Amino acid sequence: MREAPPLAGVIGYPIGHSKSPILHGHWLRRYGISGHYVPIEVAPADLAETLQTLPRLGFKGINVTLPHKENVLAMADKVSDRAALIGAANTITFTGHGKIQADNTDGVGFLANVKQGAPGWNARGAPAVVLGAGGAARAVISALLSDGAPEVILANRTRSRAEDLRQAFGAKVHVVDWGQVGAHLTEAGLLVNTTSLGMEGNGPLTLSLERLPTNCVVTDIVYAPLETPLLRDASARGCVSVDGLGMLLHQAAPGFHRWFGVAPEVDQDLRDAVLGG
Ligand code: ATR
Fold first, then answer.
1. What separation in Å is there between the alpha carbon of 134 and the centre of ligand 1?
2. Cα 136 to Cα 154: distance, rounded to the nearest angstrom
């Protein structure tokens, strides 16, 4: 008898907007793998039962999106250090006998994207300025510090949320006022927007880049539009800018590798597939 094809998917509530099925589907075709990756809408009340059932149905693992990213941690048998530090998981692997292994690849996806888009950049070189203090900021800060960033200058509209991150990540994180962040750009080697400002339908991020060194790399986790006003201003200033789509693509790669056995490429073909889908 032929073995059943490997299955993976993404759970969220709602799930219709997720780009993950397109990107994993592209890789499955590209590498000639006879598996399937499906979107699954899971209401919060059904989360625990779903995590028990999926491995029995042949699922090797799943991606996890809103609103489940935090809740899955308590249901996992094993939580990676980085998922524990970030306080959320986006990648679950079912190991032998349905054991649930939770990981978070958002931070490594973020770093891989910046390194691909700005090959000369490295985290050790200079402080990073991070805007925002939500879940995405947690992933970004954890990745920057584990990659050797000497300092993270953090600003958030609600200052207390930034202070919470300083508590979680320690003394290399320096909190500054949201309204003052422009004055702290002079030493920056990387500027990251993790807020939802600049996204289609939201207001733009209004930040003067006057003090930003022209060798600073600027990146945004917003990818709709691909070129946010922040990235456009940064490019006009002569800075290398890296759009946020690559973070989405790179965070998906470790899961695909674990579940389907091939380390996939993040390249222009994949970008085109996701943008066209
Ligand atoms: P995520 O988990 O995706 O990062 P989130 O927790 O909703 O999402 O965080 C969104 C971020 O965008 C927060 O840093 C938020 O600032 P507050 O903590 O003050 O809410 C930021 N943000 C959203 N709208 C904003 C606005 N109009 N001006 C400034 N910051 C904004």
1. 6
2. 13
